[in-house]
Q: What sequence folds into this?
């Protein structure tokens, strides 16, 4: 059940307790020259222990795994003590400033340039400031547990409002974060974005969902889009049986659908960033696909989190052999939830499956590395830029696509083995209960992240067959084999057809003819009763069939 409330802003207070003797770190973000794509930042540190203050610009950002060196856009850096007298800093590496000679207080000011609207970087112009925290905010080592205060000073005359998962205060331009990890996880959009809000009942809770959409479309288009998002949000809940306990009881979709944006989506604990150069009018389903993917991450990766990413290291590459699960399974559920929510048709989902299966069965990279090994390449392929050429066409398969194909294979295999009694939804729910639901010692942390062994153990428990789980991981995740998609898909009334003439099976071949997965109706016959039942339990709304 859902209720939509239009154009009503909720202020939900959840003030984090201030740790005694630990002055908050205070940030002030101002915009003297937005037309020059720049932002002015002042940070105040008090109650500092003796010794150098180790200031850092991040080199990595959760969810985009390349090393970025955000320090490249920082300039005009100055340091002062508590009374405004200049302090000196040693600058041993590009992202490090060690401020010396202070007596307990340091104020750092700098300017930063940003001209890329996406989920990873920073963009400032006359219409908005679109901020990914690691790309913009300097921070100090050793102060990670301190609370943080953030104040925004929009350009004179601009009627910018703030959209963020940061904790609101009484002043609409002043926010807080309980600690460093939560601050870094909190993107901010300052603009005249249109706002829509709806609530969904979830047991004892009623979380508030907000859409802040900076776009060139109409109010009517946004109203329709909001209704679509509401269906996705409701259907995603069915997989896990409940929403995560969002900090502040709210979740914010920050969308920039602007001709000068770069297509992207980025997950966070209580928000996501959605960017595209297209519009609701031109690309509604494409934008909804990203909504579905990023919202699924509120469970899978934000709270059901690989141990390798917890806590995130902002100074180094973060390597995880589990991204085939964190990204790949999310890539499977994104379009599946659109289908279950009735936003797409069975043929649309078949086209998604065709892409997944074609990519993994024909990519030469599969001869080189497993899905686990591909995941560990993320820092080299996800947002990385090179001057020289890489040979990834022949040595790499995206862990998004391969992982989605594994999820498809595992979902069908579980359903096939159990006659529909056990599904991938049960597996996701089991992982949620063990690794996500217990939460963390502080907002922004996960206390019980998973390992590869945990994923296999959960599959053994859900399937009731440890030998099956061991074999599945050995062959399809740590090995390079593919499940028999053709046989499994046949159970749901799908056929695998060659796209080019000649024989094709959705099996092991590297390269070879491409295939299309189509419903049997398109191949000239009606599905049998068994096929119809199998397909319905898989692709129809789980709120209706209760699986
Ligand atoms: Zn993702």
A:
């Amino acid at each position: 059940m859902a209720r939509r409330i239009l154009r009503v802003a909720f202020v939900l207070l959840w003030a984090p307790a201030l740790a005694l003797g630990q002055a908050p770190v205070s940030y002030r973000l101002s915009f003297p020259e937005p037309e020059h794509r720049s932002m002015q930042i002042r940070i105040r540190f008090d109650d500092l222990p003796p010794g150098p203050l180790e200031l850092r610009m991040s080199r990595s950002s959760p969810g985009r795994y390349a090393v970025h060196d955000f320090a490249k856009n920082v300039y005009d850096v100055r340091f002062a003590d508590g009374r405004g007298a200049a302090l000196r800093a040693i600058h041993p590496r590009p992202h490090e400033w060690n401020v010396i000679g202070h007596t307990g207080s340091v104020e750092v000011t700098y300017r930063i340039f940003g001209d890329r609207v996406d989920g990873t970087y920073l963009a400032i112009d006359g219409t908005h400031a679109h901020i990914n925290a690691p790309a913009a905010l300097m921070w100090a080592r050793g102060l990670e547990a301190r609370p943080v205060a953030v104040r925004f000073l929009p350009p004179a005359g601009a009627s910018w409002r703030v959209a963020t998962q940061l904790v609101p205060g009484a002043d609409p331009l002043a926010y807080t974060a309980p600690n460093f990890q939560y601050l870094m996880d909190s993107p901010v959009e300052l603009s005249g974005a249109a706002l829509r809000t709806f609530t969904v009942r979830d047991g004892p809770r009623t979380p508030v969902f907000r859409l802040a959409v900076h776009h060139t479309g109409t109010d009517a288009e946004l109203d329709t889009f909001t209704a679509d998002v509401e269906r996705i949000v409701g259907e995603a809940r069915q997989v896990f049986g409940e929403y995560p306990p969002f900090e502040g009881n709210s979740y914010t979709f920050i969308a920039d659908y602007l001709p000068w944006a770069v297509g992207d989506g980025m997950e966070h604990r209580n928000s996501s960033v959605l960017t595209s150069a297209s519009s609701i009018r031109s690309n509604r389903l494409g934008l909804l696909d990203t909504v579905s993917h990023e919202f699924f991450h509120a469970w899978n990766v934000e709270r059901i989190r690989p141990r390798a990413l917890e806590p995130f290291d902002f100074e180094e590459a973060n390597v995880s052999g589990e991204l085939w699960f964190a990204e790949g399974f999310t890539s499977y559920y994104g379009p599946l939830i659109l289908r279950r929510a009735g936003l797409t048709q069975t043929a649309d989902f078949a086209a998604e499956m065709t892409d997944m299966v074609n990519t993994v069965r024909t990519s030469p990279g599969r001869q080189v590395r497993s899905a686990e090994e591909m995941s560990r390449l993320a820092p080299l392929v996800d947002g990385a830029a090179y001057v020289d050429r890489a040979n990834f066409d022949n040595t790499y398969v995206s862990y998004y696509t391969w992982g989605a194909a594994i999820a498809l294979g595992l979902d069908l295999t579980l359903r096939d083995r159990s006659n529909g009694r056990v599904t991938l939804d049960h597996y996701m729910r089991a992982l949620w209960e063990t690794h996500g639901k217990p939460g963390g010692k502080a907002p922004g942390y996960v206390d019980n992240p998973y390992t590869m062994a945990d994923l296999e153990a959960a599959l053994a428990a859900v399937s009731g067959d440890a030998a099956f789980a061991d074999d599945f991981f050995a062959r399809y995740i740590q090995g390079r084999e593919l499940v028999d998609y053709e046989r499994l898909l046949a159970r749901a009334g799908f056929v695998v057809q060659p796209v080019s003439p000649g024989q094709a099976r959705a099996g092991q071949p590297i390269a070879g003819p491409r295939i299309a997965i189509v419903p049997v109706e398109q191949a000239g016959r009606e599905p049998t009763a068994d096929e119809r039942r199998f397909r319905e339990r898989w692709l129809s709304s789980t709120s209706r069939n209760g699986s």
Summary: Residues 219-240 form the longest helix (22 residues). The chain has two domains: 2-9+23-296, 319-418+451-484. Residues 319-418+451-484 form a domain with the Neutral Protease; domain 2 fold (CATH 1.10.390.10).
